[in-house]
Amino acid sequence: MKTDTTDIKRLFLNSLKRGTGEAYLIVRDNPNIDFSTQIIKGALNIFAYDGQSEGSRGKYIFDIISIVKQKDKIRKAILKGLATEKNDTWSLTHLFDLTKLYAQQGDNEARQAIYNRFLNEPIEGSDWVGYSEILELDGLKGLLFIAEKFGRHIEQNPEDWQDDSIIRHFQEENKELKVKEELEKASKKNSFIKLYLDTITKTKNEHKKHKQEKIEFNSIIEEIINSRFLSLRRQKNLTENEILEIATQLLKEKNKSNFEKLLYIFYDYKFPFQSEFILKLAKQKKNTKNRINEFAIYALQHLKSEEIRQFALDKIQKSKRPFDYLEILISNYSKGDFRILCDIANKFNDEHIIENLAGIYTEIYKANKTTECKEPLEILYNKMNCGIHRNGIIEVLIENKVISDKIKKEIPFDSFLETRELLNENKN
Fold this sequence. Notes:
Elements: H1 2-18, H2 22-29, H3 36-44, H4 51-54, H5 58-65, H6 71-84, H7 89-103, H8 108-117, H9 131-156, H10 165-173, H11 179-187, H12 191-210, H13 220-226, H14 232-236, H15 240-252, H16 256-264, H17 275-282, H18 292-299, H19 306-318, H20 329-332, H21 338-347, H22 351-367, H23 374-381, H24 387-399, H25 405-410, H26 422-425
Helix pairs in contact: 1-2, 3-5, 3-6, 5-7, 6-7, 7-8, 9-12, 11-12, 16-18, 17-18, 21-23, 22-23, 22-24, 23-24
């Protein structure tokens, strides 16, 4: 029985780290096992691949805590963790969110713990952590506290700067309030709030001084060549004529640096001329002085031919980094290729590689609808700790009608809250 319990706890912690709903089900189905040590690990640490992008797993952990017997022990560990976390920004945001859930249930000690921790020995570059929980709990009253706390901090740290992002965020969420007027009114009686507002004004003025004038370009070619890189919005919204213009220039461009910049555009767009041109670039030997070979391989994901497919298969088979060539299969997938994807998914365990594979596999099977997606995607599902890409994997499994009963049962308790809604969204 001891071995069984140890194995169950190990399985639970594995699921907890990945963020799958299996963790909740294991606790529910084993009420006599004490999982508190493992739950505390999940409460004090954000195990998500990217805590910034994925956000807090507070609700996920809180749901699990709600069905265990050791609630008080875990709660004490969380409050202590909130007070003492000094190293990881995203673990701290996770702890603030968890503690907020206690406060919302009337736990005044938890509420006070949030106020006590805010801007108290903040992690460098993360003095904002906790503001959203205070605003969610106490609205304008909370904002006045935040403004005063920042003012006190600025008085002790005159070199500090603040912008108006917190105020803007609160105003967007509370359109019925005149937030700036309320703060200015409070600042007449509170010197710390006034110092906070004055610092924001100073920051704005400094920003205006150093703001670069927008450069106007005569053509898309001139813009690409003379910019370090295009803005993401610009890169994603090129017109068909601009794409043709870029491709035409690429065919005759002699400058390697300019060539590289032009070629990168075809990471997002299909090269409109003969694919052999791009394939030839992809076959070139890698050069440490430029990324032409790499960018050409990116561009092949949008192009389809037997020669391109064979190039990809050869590289996948021989390369120590087969995942560098998998995107080519987005446009060149053939029946049976799931075996290749399974082999690669089984071969690697590094979280960065698994994350990369999850993004690529999802794109492959969005472009190629097939029940073959089931096995390779499930392998990744059972390895990855990214809730965002797991959401994408589950969407593809549902869309291709190969979602397993096991995963179906786990979805309502997933750490990524958007995933919990997927079955409801696809009932029809």
